[in-house]
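Incident log, support desk, overnight shift.

02:14 A customer reports that sequence design results differ from what the structure should imply. Their input is reproduced verbatim below. On-call engineer (initials T.W.) acknowledged and began investigating.
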């Protein structure tokens, strides 16, 4: 009887294990990760321990920009022609470009304006003025060997007044490789951020 009970327990254990083994056989850990990931970094950053204060009236909420589908990925889009799009081989962002751009833009605004800048996921709780927009171009143009960053900004003041402006930076002569394209996109993004900060600073 003891032998029969032991066999029954083993059979139940194997029965529970088989589905897990079958599931593991259907899963894949994916391809090898890239050697490095691309990131956006603000060229001017607030030092550790720096403090800024303000009120809801003078605070500025920086919202995550809208992006077209080809940018809403971790890859770098390459414009091959007016009707063809590809992605740059082995070029992978550490996070989606819209999030990276918002963080870099907010940091630049902190350094170049006197505003209290908020870039949390729910900035509407803290500020009456908002900066939003659409990151329409953020990639590589193969025909020009150029990176392009184009941001259509929308700012809404505490009074409710709304203004829009388009900012664009193009850097040509960029080799179609992850490192030079990533570095050029970082430079172009910082220049766009500086232009936006100068625009906001005049508000």
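02:41 Re-run completed on a clean worker. Output:
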């Amino acid at each position: 009887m003891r032998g029969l009970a032991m066999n029954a327990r083993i059979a139940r254990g194997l029965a529970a294990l088989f589905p897990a083994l079958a599931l593991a056989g259907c899963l894949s850990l994916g391809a090898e990760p890239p050697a490095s990931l691309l990131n956006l970094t603000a060229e001017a950053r607030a030092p550790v321990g720096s403090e800024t204060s303000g009120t809801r009236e003078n605070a500025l909420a920086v919202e995550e920009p809208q992006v077209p589908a080809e940018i809403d990925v971790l890859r770098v889009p390459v414009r091959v022609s007016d009707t063809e799009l590809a992605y740059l081989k082995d070029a992978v962002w550490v996070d989606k470009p819209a999030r990276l751009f918002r963080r870099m833009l907010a940091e630049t605004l902190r350094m170049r304006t006197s505003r209290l800048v908020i870039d949390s996921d729910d900035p509407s709780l803290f500020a009456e003025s908002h900066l939003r927009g659409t990151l329409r171009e953020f990639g590589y143009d193969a025909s020009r060997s150029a990176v392009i960053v184009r941001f259509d900004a929308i700012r809404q003041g505490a009074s409710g007044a709304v203004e829009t402006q388009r900012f664009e930076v193009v850097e040509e002569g960029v080799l179609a490789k992850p490192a030079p394209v990533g570095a050029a996109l970082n430079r172009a993004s910082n220049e766009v951020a500086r232009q936006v900060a100068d625009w906001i600073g005049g508000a």
